[in-house]
Amino acid sequence: MLSIKKILMLCGLITTTQVFGLPQDSRRAGGIAVIPLTQNVTEVKYNGLPVLVTQPNSQRYAVFGIPLSTPVGTLELQTNSQPIQIEVKDYKYAQQRLTVKNQDYVNPKQEQLDRYAREAKEQNDIYTSFTAAQWADFPHFIRPTAGKFSNSFGRKRFFNGEERAPHSGLDIPAPVGQKVIAPAAGIVVGTGDYFFNGKTVLIDHGQGLISMFCHLSQIKVSKGQKLSQGEVLGLVGKTGRVTGAHLHWGMSLNNARVDPQLFLSP
Hints:
The chain is mainly β. It has two domains: 14-88, Peptidoglycan hydrolase domains (Immunoglobulin-like, Sandwich); 95-263, Distorted Sandwich (Glucose Permease (Domain IIA)). The chain contains two helices and 22 strands. The strands form six sheets. Strands 13, 15, 16, 17, 19, 21 and 22 form a seven-stranded antiparallel beta sheet that branches. It has a four-stranded antiparallel beta sheet with strand order 5-4-8-9, with no helix packed on it. The protein has a three-stranded antiparallel beta sheet with strand order 3-7-6, with no helix packed on it. Strand 8 (73-79) and strand 9 form a beta hairpin. The longest helix has 18 residues, at 110-127. The protein is globular, with a radius of gyration of 19 Å. One of its GO terms (molecular function) is metalloendopeptidase activity. Residues 166-260 form the M23ase beta-sheet core domain.
């Protein structure tokens, strides 16, 4: 007899699968591949960078973030044994057209571009880092703030009619001052008031898994601080390039921005 979940998958109502305790497996640009490993595979890499490996039970898994820029087709991971091939499937993201009143956020001046380049390098150094896991089992994630998800991840964006990069995070509309909490335990590895992202906090959860929280009105933590799940890290705001108050929640896995919803229970 088919389970309810199997029936929903066959009907196309569920497009991802989930191994207990791990993110949802969704093999698309901006998605996650959860790959069972054989006993002889002790190391997994992509483009020279290590990939997260965890063992929630007797089975070991590689948990790999698929970059948003990945085309449909076959992608290959390197191991100490045989390469692992992943079939990246087509996925249609929506488009979003926004009107931004401050033209500096659409066509920045040179000094603003220079500032953005410095800030981007600072954040990229965090995204490409790889630290030891602070957990035995893969961390369970919860929502960082209350509010309805806008399903904005991956959207192709147009600001005042000009095309920009796809949206690399999940927007949660919420009132200014609403609490933002750590969705899982980790260490604060970056804070700042950035040109595009506004007041921002970055948390390292271990093994190249980084969460990012942008457009805050206040930052309540400092760099190097250890956070438990549920601890307040800041307050919702509308700083940086925004059209209204909301939280931008980003997740980076092996330096790939992936859909944060895949870390939550479906």
